C-alpha cells in the first residue's frame, strides 16, 4: 500500500512518522537539555553543538523542537481522537435516525460552527483555565487538559457534520434498505454497514483536523494562552516573536516544523481521501 | 458528383486501465452533398466514437487516431486544432443524444443559439438575436421570443432537442452529425424530431450522418445505411437494397428484434443472445461468430473482409444470406 | 445603531434586503415560501443558540465582571453599580436583557476599569468597518488570483503546468496564516522596510498609506484562501469539462478560452461561492492572530481583548454580530447561487 503512494505522500508519511518518533522517544535521544542556557545566543543553523542553532535565551532549538513535538502532537492526537469519536457517534446518530434527532444535532453543530473555531477555543480556554484567583496562573497539567478539552469541542461539530453527510448517503443506499427490510436491528446495521463505510471519510478528515489543531495550538500560544514556556512548538513561536529582530532563526525553526507537519498531515489525509474516491468511482 | 466527406480506414484506440480498447477498426465510408447515411449498431459498437472521431471531437489524451478524413478534399486529420475549429459549426455540426446534458444548464437558450452566429459568422448582437428567432421558427418552436429567455430546464425534452438542432444548424453546416438524436425522448416525440431533421436536411441541402441503435429509425430517413458491429462496418448498402436483401446475419438478427404490428400478441421478441466481444482483447475470426446461428469453424478462426456484392451492397461475411455459393 | 452609517455595511444591508425579497417573492409557489421560512427558523435558532451558549460559557468565567470592574469603589457604590449594570441578574434574565438590547441596536456597556462604562457600539463602529474592508480586500484578491489558477490547472489537468501549480497551491493551503504573517513581517517589514508592520490607517488619511498598511495582512490571509479556492474550482471545473454541453460548445467552433469562461466557469462556481461565503464570518472575526500580529484593531483584536478583560456583554455582542454576518452571507450566497445556476432553483431541497 505504501509503495503505491506518490513521492510527496511517501515523504509526508515519513515526516509524520518522524514527528511521532520525536514525540514518543524524544527524550531518549542524545539531545541537549532543552532548558539549559547555552553561551551562544542566536546561533545560526549547523553551529557546532547546536544543529538548528539557539535562540536569544541560549536554548538549544533542536532539543526544544524534539521535546515540543510531544505536547504539540499529544494535544493534536487527543483532541482529534476524542473529537472524532464523539463527533462520529453524533454524526451517525443524526444521519441514521434523521427526524428530530437530526434537526437538533444539526442546529447544535451549526451553532458551534458559526463561531470561528479560534474564538471558540479562546473563550473556552479562558473560562476553563483561569483559576478563581486571577493572580495565580493555572498549573501546566490543567492547562494542557483544558486545551485538549476545548479543542475537542471545536473538532466535534466539524467531524459531526461530515459524518452525518456520509451516513445520510450510505443510509439511503440499497444494501441498507435491504438490510432494514429483512428486519435487521438498527444497531446491527450501523455496526455492519454504516460504520465500515463511514470510517474511511472520518480518518481522512481526522488527518486534516490534526493540521487544524496544530495551527490553533500555535495561534493560542501566540496569544499567550497556550501550554506556555516553550514546551510546545506554538509556545516556542510565542517566545521567539519578541526577539524577531535579533534571532529570527528561533522563530523560523519551529515555524518550519509546524508548517511541514501541517502540510504532511494534509497530504496524508488527501491521499487517503483520493484512494477512497477512486475506489468508489471504479465500482 | 464528387464526395463531400471521405473517411478512409479510420481507426481509434483508447488506452484504458484494462488495456488498449480498439473502438473503431479501420472504417471507411463516404458521403455526397445532400446525402444521408445511417450508422446503426448496438450500444458499444463504436458508432458514437466513429462520429466524433470523424469530426475530430475526440479530445481525450488517451485516444489514438489513425486513417484519413477528407472534407471537401481537405485532410482533417492533418489540420491544427484551430484550423479544425474553423470547420466546426460552419461545415460540420453535431446534435447530441441527450439535450438535457448537452445544453448548458446555466445559460439562456437565446445566448446559446446566438453564440455560433455571433462568434463564427461575426453577426452583431441584434442580428444574432434575429437569427436565433429565425432558427427557432425553423425548428418549429412556438413563441420563439419567449423561449429565447428561458433556461434549458424550463423546456420539455422535445423542445430541448429542437433547440439543440437549432444550435447545430445555426451556421449553415454542410454536414449534420446526429448522434442518437431521439434516444432520450418519448416515442411520440421521436418521430417528430426525425421528421424535422429530415425536412431541414432537404430544406438546407445538408448531408446527414444519423447514428442510432434502431434500424427502424434510419429506415425512412436515410439514403444508405451502415451497420456497425464491434467497431467495424459489417454491412453497408442503399437503404432499399439493405432492407430487401439482407446479407449479414447480424443485420437479420437486428431486424428480427424490432417489434412489428403484425406480431401476434404474447409472442416473445427474438433477442440476440450473448454480448459484444471484449474490445480490449484481440480478435480472431468474425466478431459476430460467437453469437451467430450460422457460424461455422471458419467464422471462428478467419476474419472476413468487407466484400462488394453489387448494387453498392457491401458485407463482411463468409456465408451471406440469400447468396448461394 | 451608530455603525450603520459606515459605507460597506450600508451596502451589505441593502444587498441582504434585496436577496431576502428575492428568496421570498422570486418563486411564486407557497412551498417555496414554506422552505424559506423553515430555513430562516433554523438560522434564527442557530443565532440564538450561539449567543446563549456564549453567555452561558462566559458566565462560568471565574471572577465575575462585577468584581473586576467595581473593586475601586466603596461597598455602596459597588452595589449600586452592579444593579445599574444588571450584573445581579441570573443567566436567563441576563441573556434576555442582552438580546432585547441587541435587537434594538444597543450592544451593551463596555466596562472601564475602575468603574463606569462606555457603549460597546463605539468600539464596534470603529472595528467593524476595518474588518469588513480587510475581508473585502482578501476575498477580492483571493478570487482574482484563484479563478485563473483554477481554470489553468483544470484545463491542463495532470500536465506539468498543473502539477507544479497544484503542488504549490497544496503547500500554500497548508501554511498557517500566522506563519506567513510572521515570516513576511520579518522579511518585508523589518528587514527590507518595504511595508509597515503595525497599525491601521483609515482611507480618509491617505489611500496610499491605507493600502500600504494592509498589504502584509491581506497577503497573509489571502495565500491560504487562494490555495483552497483554486483547488475547489479545479475539482469542479474538471468534472464540468466531462459534461456533454462542453463538447457541444466546442463543436460550435468557438475558442477554448471562450468555452472555459462562458460555458465552464459559471456552472462550476457554486462550490466556490459557498466556500467563500462560509469564510466571510471567519474573516470578520476569526482573524484574531493576524489582527493581533499587525495590530489592526479589527474585530479579531477586540474579541481577544474582550476575552482577556472579561467584557462578557461586549463579547456576546461581538460574537452575535459575527454570527449574524455569517448567516447573512450564507443567505446572500444562496441567492447568488440561485442566479448563477438556475438548476439549484428547481432542485427539491
CATH topology of chain A, anyone? MetI-like fold
Straight-line distance between termini of chain C:
36 Å
> Largest contact between protein chains?
A-C, 44 and 46 residues
Largest sheet strand order of chain C: 1-2
Q: CATH homologous superfamily of the domain at 126-346 in chain C, by name?
A: MetI-like
Distinct helical segment count of chain C: 16
CATH class of the domain at 126-346 in chain C: Mainly Alpha
CATH architecture of the domain at 126-346 in chain C: Orthogonal Bundle
Question: Considering DSSP H and I runs of 4 or more, what fraction of the residues of chain C is helical?
Answer: over 70%
Looking at the chains present, what oligomeric state does this protein adopt? heterotrimer
Low-confidence stretches of chain C: 1-11
Second CATH tier, the architecture of chain A: Orthogonal Bundle
Biggest sheet architecture of chain A: none
Average pLDDT rating of chain C: 78
- Percent helix of chain A, as a range, is over 70%
The string of secondary-structure elements of chain A, in order, is: HHHHHHHHH
How do the helices and strands line up, and which of them pair or pack?
The complex is a heterotrimer of chains A (283), B (325) and C (349).
Chain A (H helix, E strand, L loop, with lengths): L6 H19 L35 H37 L1 H16 L2 H12 L11 H32 L2 H8 L4 H37 L10 H9 L6 H35 L1
Helix pairs in contact in A: 1-2, 1-9, 2-3, 2-5, 2-7, 3-5, 4-5, 5-7, 6-7, 7-8, 7-9, 8-9
Chain B lengths: L4 E12 L2 E13 L4 E5 L6 H9 L7 E9 L2 E2 L5 H5 L6 E4 L3 H4 L6 H12 L4 H14 L5 H5 L8 H12 L6 E5 L7 H18 L2 E6 L2 H5 L4 E6 L2 E7 H6 L4 H8 L40 H5 L5 E2 L5 E2 L10
Parallel strand pairs in B: 3-8, 3-9, 6-7, 7-8
Antiparallel strand pairs in B: 1-2, 1-4, 4-5, 9-10, 10-12, 11-12
Helix pairs in contact in B: 4-5, 4-7, 5-7, 7-8
Chain C lengths: L6 H20 L3 H30 L5 H6 L4 H11 L5 H13 L5 E3 L5 E3 H36 L4 H15 L2 H15 L15 H35 L2 H8 L4 H9 L5 H16 L2 H6 L5 H10 L3 H29 L2 H4 L3
Antiparallel strand pairs in C: 1-2
Notable characteristics:
heterotrimer; B: alpha/beta; 8-stranded mixed beta sheet; 32% helix; 22% strand; C: 349 residues; mainly alpha; MetI-like fold; two-stranded antiparallel ribbon; 16 helices; globular; disordered N terminus
Amino acid at each position: 500500500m505504501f509503495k503505491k503512494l506518490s513521492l510527496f505522500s511517501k515523504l509526508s508519511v515519513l515526516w509524520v512518522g518522524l514527528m511521532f518518533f520525536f514525540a514518543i522517544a524524544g527524550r531518549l535521544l542524545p539531545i541537549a537539555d532543552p532548558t539549559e542556557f547555552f553561551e551562544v545566543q542566536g546561533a545560526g543553523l549547523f553551529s557546532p553543538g547546536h544543529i538548528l542553532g539557539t535562540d536569544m535565551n541560549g536554548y538549544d532549538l533542536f532539543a526544544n523542537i524534539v521535546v515540543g513535538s510531544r505536547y504539540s502532537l499529544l494535544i493534536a492526537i487527543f483532541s482529534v481522537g476524542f473529537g472524532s469519536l464523539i463527533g462520529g457517534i453524533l454524526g451517525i446518530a443524526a444521519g441514521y435516525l434523521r427526524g428530530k434527532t437530526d434537526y437538533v444535532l444539526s442546529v447544535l453543530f451549526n451553532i458551534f460552527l458559526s463561531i470561528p473555531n479560534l474564538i471558540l477555543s479562546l473563550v473556552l480556554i479562558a473560562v476553563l483555565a483561569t483559576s478563581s484567583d486571577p493572580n495565580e496562573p493555572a498549573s501546566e497539567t490543567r492547562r494542557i487538559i483544558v486545551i485538549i478539552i476545548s479543542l475537542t469541542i471545536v473538532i466535534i461539530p466539524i467531524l459531526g457534520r461530515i459524518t452525518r453527510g456520509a451516513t445520510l448517503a450510505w443510509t439511503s443506499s440499497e444494501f441498507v434498505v435491504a438490510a432494514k427490510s429483512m428486519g435487521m436491528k438498527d444497531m446491527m446495521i450501523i455496526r455492519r454497514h454504516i460504520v465500515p463505510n463511514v470510517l474511511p471519510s472520518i480518518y481522512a478528515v481526522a488527518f486534516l483536523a490534526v493540521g487544524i489543531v496544530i495551527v490553533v495550538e500555535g495561534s493560542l500560544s501566540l496569544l499567550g494562552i497556550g501550554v506556555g514556556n516553550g514546551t510546545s512548538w506554538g509556545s516556542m513561536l510565542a517566545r521567539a516573536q519578541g526577539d524577531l529582530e535579533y534571532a529570527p532563526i528561533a522563530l523560523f525553526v519551529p515555524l518550519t516544523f509546524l508548517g511541514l507537519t501541517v502540510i504532511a498531515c494534509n497530504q496524508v489525509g488527501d491521499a487517503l481521501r483520493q484512494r477512497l474516491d477512486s475506489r468508489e468511482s471504479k465500482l | 458528383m464528387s464526395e463531400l466527406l471521405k473517411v478512409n480506414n479510420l481507426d481509434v484506440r483508447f488506452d484504458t486501465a484494462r488495456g488498449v480498447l480498439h473502438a473503431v477498426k479501420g472504417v471507411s465510408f463516404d458521403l455526397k452533398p445532400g446525402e444521408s447515411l445511417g450508422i446503426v449498431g448496438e450500444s458499444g459498437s463504436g458508432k458514437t466514437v466513429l462520429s466524433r472521431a470523424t469530426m475530430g471531437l475526440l479530445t481525450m489524451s488517451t485516444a489514438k487516431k489513425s486513417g484519413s478524413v477528407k472534407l471537401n478534399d481537405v485532410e482533417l486529420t492533418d489540420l491544427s486544432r484551430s484550423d479544425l475549429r474553423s470547420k466546426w459549426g460552419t461545415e460540420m455540426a453535431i446534435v447530441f443524444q441527450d439535450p438535457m446534458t448537452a445544453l448548458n444548464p446555466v445559460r439562456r437558450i437565446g445566448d446559446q443559439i446566438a453564440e455560433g452566429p455571433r462568434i463564427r459568422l461575426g453577426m452583431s448582437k441584434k442580428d444574432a438575436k434575429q437569427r436565433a428567432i429565425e432558427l427557432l421558427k425553423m425548428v418549429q418552436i412556438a413563441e420563439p421570443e419567449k423561449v429565447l429567455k428561458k433556461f434549458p430546464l424550463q423546456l420539455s425534452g422535445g423542445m430541448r432537442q429542437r433547440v439543440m438542432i437549432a444550435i447545430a444548424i445555426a451556421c449553415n453546416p454542410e454536414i449534420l452529425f446526429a448522434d442518437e438524436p431521439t434516444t432520450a425522448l418519448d416515442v411520440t416525440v421521436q418521430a417528430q424530431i426525425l421528421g424535422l431533421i429530415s425536412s431541414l436536411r432537404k430544406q438546407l441541402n445538408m448531408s446527414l450522418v444519423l447514428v442510432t441503435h434502431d434500424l427502424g429509425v434510419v429506415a425512412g430517413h436515410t439514403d444508405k445505411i451502415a451497420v456497425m458491429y464491434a467497431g467495424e462496418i459489417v454491412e453497408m448498402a442503399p437503404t432499399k437494397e439493405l432492407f430487401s436483401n439482407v446479407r449479414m446475419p447480424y443485420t437479420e438478427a437486428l431486424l428480427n428484434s424490432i417489434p412489428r404490428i403484425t406480431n401476434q400478441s404474447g409472442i416473445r421478441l427474438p433477442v440476440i443472445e450473448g454480448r459484444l466481444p471484449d474490445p480490449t482483447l484481440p480478435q480472431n475470426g468474425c466478431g459476430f461468430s460467437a453469437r451467430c446461428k450460422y457460424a461455422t469453424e471458419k467464422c471462428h478462426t478467419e476474419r472476413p473482409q468487407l466484400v462488394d456484392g453489387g448494387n453498392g451492397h457491401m458485407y463482411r461475411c463468409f456465408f451471406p444470406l440469400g447468396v448461394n455459393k | 445603531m451608530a455603525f450603520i452609517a459606515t459605507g460597506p455595511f450600508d451596502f451589505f444591508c441593502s444587498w441582504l434586503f434585496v436577496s431576502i425579497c428575492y428568496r421570498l417573492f422570486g418563486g411564486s409557489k407557497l412551498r417555496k415560501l414554506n422552505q424559506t421560512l423553515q430555513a430562516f427558523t433554523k438560522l434564527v435558532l442557530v443565532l440564538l443558540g450561539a449567543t446563549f451558549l456564549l453567555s452561558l460559557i462566559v458566565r462560568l468565567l471565574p471572577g465575575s465582571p462585577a468584581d473586576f470592574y467595581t473593586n475601586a469603589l466603596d461597598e455602596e457604590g459597588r452595589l449600586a453599580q452592579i444593579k445599574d449594570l444588571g450584573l445581579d441578574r441570573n443567566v436567563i434574565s441576563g441573556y434576555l436583557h442582552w438580546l432585547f438590547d441587541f435587537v434594538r441596536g444597543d450592544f451593551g456597556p463596555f466596562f472601564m476599569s475602575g468603574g463606569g462604562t462606555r457603549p460597546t457600539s463605539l468600539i464596534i463602529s470603529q472595528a467593524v468597518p476595518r474588518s469588513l474592508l480587510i475581508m473585502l480586500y482578501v476575498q477580492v484578491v483571493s478570487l482574482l488570483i484563484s479563478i485563473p489558477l483554477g481554470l489553468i490547472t483544470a484545463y491542463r489537468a495532470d500536465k506539468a503546468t498543473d502539477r507544479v501549480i497544484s503542488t504549490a497551491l497544496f503547500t500554500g493551503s497548508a501554511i498557517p496564516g500566522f506563519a506567513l504573517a510572521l515570516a513576511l513581517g520579518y522579511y518585508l517589514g523589518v528587514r527590507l522596510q518595504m511595508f509597515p508592520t503595525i497599525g491601521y490607517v483609515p482611507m480618509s488619511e491617505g489611500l496610499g498609506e491605507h493600502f500600504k498598511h494592509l498589504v502584509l495582512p491581506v497577503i497573509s490571509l489571502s495565500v491560504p484562501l487562494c490555495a483552497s479556492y483554486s483547488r475547489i474550482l479545479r475539482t469542479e471545473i474538471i468534472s464540468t469539462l466531462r459534461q456533454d454541453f462542453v463538447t457541444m460548445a466546442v463543436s460550435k467552433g468557438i475558442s477554448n478560452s471562450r468555452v472555459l469562461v462562458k460555458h465552464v466557469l459559471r456552472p462550476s462556481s457554486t462550490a466556490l461561492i459557498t466556500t467563500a461565503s462560509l469564510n466571510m464570518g471567519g474573516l470578520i472575526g476569526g482573524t484574531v492572530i493576524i489582527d493581533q500580529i499587525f495590530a489592526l484593531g479589527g474585530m479579531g483584536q477586540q474579541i481577544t481583548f474582550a476575552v482577556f478583560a472579561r467584557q462578557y456583554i461586549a463579547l456576546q455582542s461581538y460574537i452575535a454580530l459575527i454570527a449574524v454576518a455569517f448567516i447573512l452571507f450564507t443567505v446572500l450566497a444562496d441567492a447568488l447561487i440561485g442566479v448563477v445556476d438556475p438548476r439549484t432553483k428547481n432542485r427539491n431541497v
